[in-house]
Amino acid sequence: MIRRPPRSTLFPYTTLFRSDSGEILIDSKKVNDIPPADRDVAMVFQSYALYPHMTVFNNIAVNLRLRKVKKEEFTRLVLKTSKTLGISDLLDRRPKALSGGQRQRVALARAIIRNPKVFLLDEPLSNLDAALREKTRGELKLLFSQLGATVVYVTHDQVEAMTMSHRIVVLKDGVIQQIGTPHEIYNVPINTFVATFIGSPKMNLIHGNIEDDNILYALNKIPIFILPRKDMLQKYIGNDVIVGLRPEDISITSISRDERYNAQIVLCELIGQQTIVTLHINGLELKVITPSSFDATEKSVGIKIDTSHIHLFDPLSGKKIY
């Protein structure tokens, strides 16, 4: 008789990637060395990963069958879960007869029915068209709120990240750049990568210099003394900085007598209640957000900058200094 070796011998590595340091806790329990199958985690893949030969009912019930749950119980749970996701009328169909949105709901139902401690969602909406993605995004947020579930949601879509999360982890090349609430990530970016990655259009970055009591850059001269926490900038006097300005913190005005404040309009993009205006000023390109009522026939305009929302970054490290 061939005996099956213990799991620790058969699978010396319990995950694709072992943690380099620290502890992974689920419900206060360390799971670093627990096999993935025993961590009580449900995953929803970008590609749905449905079994093509099974009906929707059986796709949803497959994990419960493997757990030897009684037929009456898993039938009740499938009907309840499918009703929650609005797919009760699809239970007899196979995946090939479903739309992308319907397949995604089936994949979610298969994860939800397990009632796991943690949900892992890997870009679950990326295969949907824009209208369906927006609709499903709201439904998912409401659903997981009702479930009281812990969800780790991976996305490249900043709108999904900002609208669906309580906390965001911004990654670059596998390295964490910043962790915070959507408000913190947007309003207090820790470096130039986060500043330009979060926000559409992205933050305007301008090279400048701090001289004496002024911040000099191509658009303006800002006295340091009008900025709160000016003591933070003393060591940067005489050095270069990167000035960050969100598009909504720049206003379009009438032509100014001071040529430094005048810009040429290059492009206007109407997006519903707002217009994104691209300006050229002093050799720079700026993105500005204006109301949709903006007169797009204008060629030259003045600008006004809200210096109370200015951001300053170190030009070498890219880290926020103010």
Question: Topology of this structure?
Answer:
Layout: H1 7-10, E1 25-26, E2 29-30, E3 41-44, H2 56-66, H3 71-84, H4 100-112, E4 118-122, H5 130-147, E5 150-154, H6 158-164, E6 168-172, E7 175-180, H7 182-187, H8 192-197, E8 204-211, E9 214-217, E10 220-223, E11 240-245, E12 250-253, E13 262-271, E14 274-281, E15 284-291, E16 300-305, E17 311-313
Helix pairs in contact: 2-3, 2-4
Describe, in plain words, how this protein is organized in 3D:
- The structure is a single chain.
- The strands form five sheets. The protein has a five-stranded antiparallel sheet. Strands 12-16-13-14-15 form a five-stranded antiparallel sheet, with no helix packed on it. Strands 3-4-5 form a three-stranded parallel sheet, covered by helices on one side.
- It has helices at 7-10, 56-66, 71-84, 100-112, 130-147, 158-164, 182-187, 192-197, and strands spanning 25-26, 29-30, 41-44, 118-122, 150-154, 168-172, 175-180, 204-211, 214-217, 220-223, 240-245, 250-253, 262-271, 274-281, 284-291, 300-305, 311-313.
- The model is unreliable at 1-15 (pLDDT under 50).
- A hairpin with a 2-residue loop joins strand 6 and strand 7 (175-180).
- The longest helix has 18 residues, at 130-147.
- Helices cover 25% and strands 28% of the residues.
- Helix 2 crosses helix 3.
- It has two domains: 7-192, 3-Layer(aba) Sandwich (Rossmann fold); 202-313, OB fold (Dihydrolipoamide Acetyltransferase, E2P), CATH 2.40.50.140.
- The chain contains eight helices and 17 strands.
- It has 322 residues and is of the alpha+beta class.
